[in-house]
Amino acid sequence: MKAFADLYQRLDRSTATGDKRAALVAYFSGVDAHDGAWALYLLSGGKVSGARRKIAGSMELRAWISEESGLPAWLVEDSYEQVGDLAETLTLLHDEPAQDAADRPLASWIETHLLAVANLDEARRRAAVVAGWRTLPAPQRLVFNKLLTGSLRVGVSQRLVQQALAELSGLDISRIAQRMLGEWVPSPTLLATLLSHEEQPLDRAQPYPFYLASPLEAEAASLGPISDWQLEWKWDGIRLQLLRRRGEVALWSRGEERLDGRFPEIEEAAMALPDGCVIDGELLAWDEAGDVPRAFTALQTRIQRRKPGAATLRATPVRVLAYDLLELDGEDLREVPLHERRARLTALLDALDDPRLQVSAQVHASDWEHAARLRLEARERGVEGLMLKRADSVYQAGRRRGDWWKWKIDPLTIDAVLLYAQAGHGRRSTLYTDYTFGVWDGETLVPVAKAYSGLDDKEILALDRWIRANTRERFGPVRSVRAEQVFELGFEAVNISKRHKSGIAVRFPRILRWRQDKPASEADVLAQLQALAR
Predict the structure, then answer these.
(1) What is the mean pLDDT of the chain?
(2) Quick check: 250 and 182 in contact, CB under 8 A?
(3) Nearest CA to 90 among 122, 44, 58, 119?
(4) Is 530 helix (H, G, I), strand (E, B) or coil?
(5) Which of 85, 92, 244, 322 has its CA at 20 to 30 Å from residue 432's CA atom?
(6) Is 30 exposed, middle or buried (0-12, 13-18, 19+ CB in 10 A)?
(7) How far is CA 229 from CA 86, 217, 385, 397, in A?
(8) What tens digit of pLDDT does each residue of 83-138 get?
(9) What number is the average pLDDT over the span 441-466?
(10) Per residue in 365-381, pLDDT tens?
């Protein structure tokens, strides 16, 4: 545990990516294999305690620390309010152990101490937690508490971890990223398998790491001649890879989830593809009568059903618009130039001739001005803008700038009123940074959007002070505030939604600016959003 706590402190105190990567390389090069597997799991976002394996809830932890420390509950609550992070609060409120105990491996703390009492009665769970508090010095106790609360955020992305492992092993980062996709369980053999230079049995069952486009912020003309680029529509669906390997079909979402059974018509169509084939594309709900994509919300009925019935299949037909071919006849094509991959993809799907699997059409423009005019048609077409891909680009892993860009249309905007606020996470856990906004429906403000980004640090601090001084009610971690502050929000689209009280759902909302010049009475009304809804 000490080695992992030391790593946590080093990562938490550094803002330099190179320093963090060096710390990860040093840790994984010398750590016990079993501990290293759990560290990898935790740094990749895995949690020890959760809904399916309860070790301690937030209320229980606060009650137990009150009993253990002898502090009244109100003082624990006040301390938590001031600190903002429960794990740090628990660490600060407990005394240091009377004497140092022998260092115990991270894997042992997790598997034989915490997971061993998961879902048991409160007395046994409490005993395990309190034993950790009484045994561990502050740096290790903080990590222990982070495991309990599931808040082990330390400014390390999964890609940074993968970079460190690639540097350590000499493997290509794309191979490591591929092996880390999907669900995996920490074990003593995990790191050896992950870093092996030999092909592993699961390598053929996993998708390739997705290549992600970056937002285009410069003028499109700065990219050079338009003839060097391939243009496509930016679809608003589910990014996925379709794998046809070893006689089976698997659909993998970009979120590293297998979508088995949810889209049987796509799996059926893909069975006609040659074995050893991987296609990258977008899955869309499709209006067959109008031959246009439907709103993203139409897909939600399909995502939630692992085995959709005939009525659901008829009501919400889907198709895949393919835009890349990553493997054919078992050959990895990612290093082949895009224009060649696309030619092979077109030939493959033209021969298949199945409307459920189609090539995403290219958008032809004579120059960048022409492309800009076409981009303005995006919203009417039910798409988000244009994708710009260098014609000779290889298929990389992750978000690598330079060859793939997303040129989205300007967002729709509304002026909305701040209604609720909640503390953020990680370094912003002491500040109110998660906001809920509403618009007028008659004399009532109706919530329509949540946003977490768009303000600079100075604005966040000022708004945090205002929220604390103007709180009306508290609902656990959420505060309702006086309906006075107006913000301009940007979003991509508005969809009809039965799951929301307002009847609509906005796509990708974010804060564009704080409208301190505008009173709440002049904020926008729900009817404006309803008129835009698809």
Answers:
(1) 90
(2) no
(3) 58
(4) helix
(5) 92
(6) exposed
(7) 50, 17, 15, 19
(8) 878 999 999 999 999 887 789 999 999 999 999 999 999 999 999 999 999 999 99
(9) 91
(10) 999 999 999 998 888 88
Q: Pick the catalytic residue: 234, 307, 408, 501? A: 234
Distance CA 522, CA 237 (A): 34
Catalytic residue flag (residue 234): yes
d(C-alpha 161, C-alpha 99), whole Å: 34
Residue 13 C-alpha from the chain's centroid: 24
Q: What is the DSSP string of 314-363?
A: HHS-EEEEEEEEEEETTEE-TTS-HHHHHHHHHHHHHHH-BTTEEEPPBP
User: Distance between CA 331 and CA 82 in Å, rounded?
Assistant: 57
Find out whether 345 and 273 touch, Cβ atoms under 8 Å: no
8 A C-beta contact, residue 292 and residue 298: no
Q: Report the alpha-carbon distance of residue 507 to residue 493 in Å, rounded.
A: 5
Task: Confirm if 56 and 148 have CB atoms less than 8 A apart.
Answer: yes
User: Dihedrals φ, ψ of 292, to 5°?
Assistant: -140, 160
* Of 373, 208, 211, the residue nearest 278 (C-alpha): 208
CA nearest neighbour of 449 among 518, 380, 396, 497 = 497
- Report whether 316 contacts 283 (CB < 8 A): no
Contacts of 134 (CB under 8 A, 6+ apart): 94, 97
Contact 348, 325 (CB under 8 A): yes
User: What is the 3-state composition of the chain as percent helix, strand, coil, each rounded to the nearest 5?
Assistant: 40, 25, 35
pLDDT bracket for residue 526 (50, 70, 90): very high
**How many CB atoms sit inside 10 A of residue 523's CB?**
23
Of the listed ranges 296-310, 318-332, 335-349, the least confidently predicted one is: 296-310
pLDDT per residue as tens digits for the range 204-233: 778 888 999 999 988 999 999 999 999 999
Segment 171-200 mean pLDDT: 84
The Cα 422–Cα 412 span in angstroms is 25
Count helices and strands in the chain by DSSP H and E runs: 20, 22
Q: Could you tell me if 510 and 491 are in contact, meaning their C-beta atoms sit under 8 angstroms apart?
A: yes
DSSP symbols for 19-65? HHHHHHHHHHHHS-HHHHHHHHHHHTT--SS-SSS-S--HHHHHHHH
pTM over 0.70, yes/no: no
Q: What Å distances lie between residue 141 and 88, 130, 150, CA to CA? A: 9, 11, 14
Distance CA 281, CA 342 (A): 12
With CA atoms as reference, report the closest residue to 267 among 325, 324, 196, 319: 319
